Amino acid sequence: MLSSRRRNNGVLNMADKKPAGVPSLWSSSVFDDFRKEMDNVFEGFFGDRASAAARTGLPSLSMSGAIRPAIDIAENDTAITMTAELPGMDEDEVDLTVRDGALILKGEKKIEHDSDRDDVHVVERSYGSFQRSFPLPDRVDADAITAKFDRGVLVVTMPKKDEARTAQRKIKVGG
């Protein structure tokens, strides 16, 4: 696992040297190397980090450390509902738009400490920008989409068009 500690064009940073199995007091987590290895294993099975995170229940981290918001999508007879977890964010940090037949969720969680003043030893919380895009089905009335934000959870309701609600009929199955 030495490769995960390489810095500056392959030169090992002496501050990173420590006996194997001895956690550093100020490392971001004693499990960082283990987690990175597990991410690599899951990437091999499932493809990208997002897929692995969705299948393992772990938060998905982009290469910048920003969280890719976890999304649930559900549907009933009248609407499609998308729920997004945006912990630590306020509604003014979230942008939701419809463009070119897609629902676009963007946001930015800014870092909350002053690095010029504070002696920051560990940063585990995620921050940065994100953007996710979801194609809208034809049966959604894009002009009637609404959104509510409460305690870090965004709920987007996408009502179905009237013809999509009634365009259902029973088909007899016979031999």
Automatic annotation (TrEMBL):
PANTHER family the UniProt entry points to: HEAT-SHOCK PROTEIN 20 FAMILY MEMBER (PTHR11527)
Listed Gene3D superfamilies: 2.60.40.790
Q: Which InterPro entries match?
A: A-crystallin/Hsp20_dom, HSP20-like_chaperone, Small_HSP
Identify the SUPFAM superfamilies for this entry: HSP20-like chaperones
**Species whose genome carries this gene:** Roseitalea porphyridii
Residue ranges annotated for the SHSP domain, each copy included: 62-175
- What is the recorded name of this protein? Hsp20/alpha crystallin family protein
The similarity comment for this entry is:
Belongs to the small heat shock protein (HSP20) family.
